[in-house]
Design a protein that fits this description.
Bound molecules: adenosine-5'-triphosphate, magnesium ion
CATH superfamily of chain B: P-loop containing nucleotide triphosphate hydrolases
Distance between the termini of chain B: 35 Å
Shape of chain B: globular
Radius of gyration of chain A: 19 Å
Order of helices and strands of chain A: HHHHEEHHHHHHH
Structural class of chain A: mainly alpha
CATH topology of chain A: ABC transporter involved in vitamin B12 uptake, BtuC
Oligomer: heterodimer
CATH architecture of chain A: Orthogonal Bundle
Number of domains of chain B: 1
Radius of gyration of chain B: 17 Å
Helix content of chain A: over 70%
Chain lengths: 288, 233
């Protein structure tokens, strides 16, 4: 029983770390722009497809492909910010809401046009399975967890410890005051979209290696991402980390001990429960 | 240093500042006074680049800044301590001060941080605390120190004593005098007109978006209309 318990925690953390990667981008974008960037899941899938394409069609190695895809994701993020969201930055929120929906459809269809309708699995050489005291840990899952952890820690340090990270937080908290400090809000906006989209692509690649890259996956990812935001608190980075892990682990428990058919139901019940007890999310100060 | 001529500013279609001219010379402290809604904050926001004027010119250090983006104007050496303090409430006092030096982020700011903590000993005690948890007076000190961290050529204050306990208002007056004594050029908007005229060298009286009177602080303090309207004689 204890072994099962630890096994499910491990499984949950692996999936939860991917949710966290998605949610970090969504929460940072929400913090700065106040927009629900629904297209984030499609950006993630774009990255997954691109990595598969670089490996299978061009024969580039797994790691370089991963890094190239993240760089392409960062560029795509900047394009999205400039072309789609920047023009409506001063308009009522409904405008960016509609643009986010339209963008989701556009990127989804572009993925289909560029990469086809087939689901693909990103090939990895990681086939070993490690067994620690009865807990089964496939090598691939350990790598996924480690890569996600490195990215999450890197992002947190960047936001907490560097000038650009401080600028991002300043713009999120008080845009006018940030301008008075000499912060270029335009550069910060592009930086946030680049960083968030690169992390989204990373999530897409990890999903593609672990499960599959497929047209239907993006909406699932983005829904889970927003569930994490609501759990952890809108705009909160610690919230995205705690929320992502909590969602991943509770889904794993639900699938293992109740029924995998009910795993989404149970994770959404959890979300409703958190909202009832702490409407502002787990990691958000109640003063706001 | 700052030369504003015939400045007109509006919100949407409504013009609220109707051609205002004033100047601030290097090393001076100049006050803008006037009733609520006269357009003082609007003028300051425009000088800082948070708003674009409808017409007129703003010259700072010999260069036209009207309509330039705010972050670039900050980079030229204009700092602002805004109305209502506007501290970054979910960041620590220390981070707020660091952000004040954002335009100088490529040089060392350690000495400046130390200097501010000496000027405001209370901020040293609270350096690690979120700015949003401080009292109004303490937040005002954060906002002032944050503005000074940029080592500005011109430092603008918008109602530093607004909503602050009378005892702390005296403290803020002393602080403004200390900042002036360091040779910082100051443009000050202050509801407490007696305080403004004690600190400033010269002043302009603004009513309904127009300058109606200007002169040295002594002249203004001796003016019958100013005494009746603002000094409560
Ligand atoms: N965001 C805004 N939108 C529309 N009108 C505004 C806005 N802000 C200020 N105004 C109007 O512009 C005029 C000048 O306002 P401003 O804030 O510059 O006055 P002020 O002199 O700073 O007053 P106070 O002493 O109350 O701070 C007022 O009539 C005000 O109603
Ligand atoms: Mg005002």
């Amino acid at each position: 029983m204890l072994i099962d318990f630890i096994q499910q925690i491990f499984n949950g953390l692996v999936v939860g770390s991917i949710y966290t990667l998605i949610a970090l981008g969504l929460t940072t974008i929400f913090g700065i722009f106040g927009i629900a960037h629904f297209a984030h899941g499609s950006v993630a899938m774009f990255g997954g497809y691109l990595t598969y394409f670089l490996i299978s069609a061009l024969g580039i190695g797994l790691l370089p492909s991963f890094i190239l895809a993240m760089a392409a994701g960062a560029l795509l993020g900047i394009v999205l910010e400039r072309v789609a969201y920047y023009p409506v930055r001063n308009a009522p929120p409904i405008n960016s809401f509609i643009i986010a929906l339209g963008l989701t459809l556009i990127i989804e269809k572009l993925n289909l046009l560029a990469f086809g309708v087939d689901q693909v699995i990103i090939p990895t050489p990681l086939v070993n399975v490690i067994n620690v005291g009865g807990v089964t840990m496939p090598e691939l899952r350990i790598y996924v967890l480690a890569i996600a952890a490195i990215l999450v820690i890197g992002m947190t340090l960047l936001i907490q410890r560097t000038w650009i990270g401080m600028a991002v937080r300043a713009v999120a908290q008080n845009r006018a005051a940030a301008v008075l400090m000499g912060i270029n809000v335009n550069s910060v906006s592009m930086f946030v979209f680049a960083l968030s989209s690169a992390l989204g692509v990373a999530a897409g690649v990890l999903v593609g290696a672990l499960f599959a890259v497929a047209p239907g996956v993006s909406s699932g990812l983005v829904i889970k991402g927003f569930a994490v935001l609501i759990l952890g608190g809108l705009g909160s980075i610690p919230g995205a980390i705690v929320g992502g892990m909590l969602l991943g682990v509770s889904e794993a428990f639900a699938a293992a001990f109740v029924s995998s058919a009910y795993k989404d139901v149970i994770s959404f019940l959890l979300m409703i429960l958190v909202l009832l007890v702490r409407p502002e999310g787990l990691m958000r100060r109640s003063s706001r | 240093m700052l030369e504003v001529s015939d400045l007109r500013i509006g919100y949407g279609q409504v013009e609220v500042v109707h051609g205002v001219s004033f100047n601030v010379r290097k090393g001076e402290c100049v006050a803008l006074i006037g009733p609520n809604g006269a357009g003082k904050s609007t003028i300051l926001k425009t000088v800082c680049g948070l708003m674009s004027p409808l017409g007129g010119s703003i010259m700072f250090g010999g260069r036209s800044t009207a309509g330039e983006p705010g972050h670039r104007i900050a980079g030229l050496g204009i700092s602002m301590c805004p109305e209502g303090r506007q501290v970054f409430s979910e960041m620590t006092v220390m981070e707020n001060l660091q952000l004040g030096a954002y335009t100088r982020r490529r040089s060392s700011i350690k000495d400046d941080l130390d200097e501010m903590m000496t000027l405001f000993p209370r901020l040293r005690e609270r350096a690690g605390q979120d700015a949003g948890t401080l009292s109004g007076g303490e937040q005002e000190m954060v906002a002032i120190a944050r503005a000074l961290m940029a080592r500005p050529k011109l430092c603008i204050f918008d109602e530093p004593s607004l909503g602050i306990a009378p005892r702390v208002v005296d403290e803020i007056e002393q602080t403004l005098l200390a900042i002036k004594a360091r040779g910082v050029t100051i443009l000050l908007v202050e509801q407490s007109v007696s305080m403004a005229l004690r600190v400033a060298d010269r002043g302009y009286v603004i009513e309904a978006g127009l300058i109606v009177l200007e002169g040295s602080s002594a002249e203004l303090a001796g003016n019958k209309n100013v005494q009746n309207a603002y000094l409560g004689f």
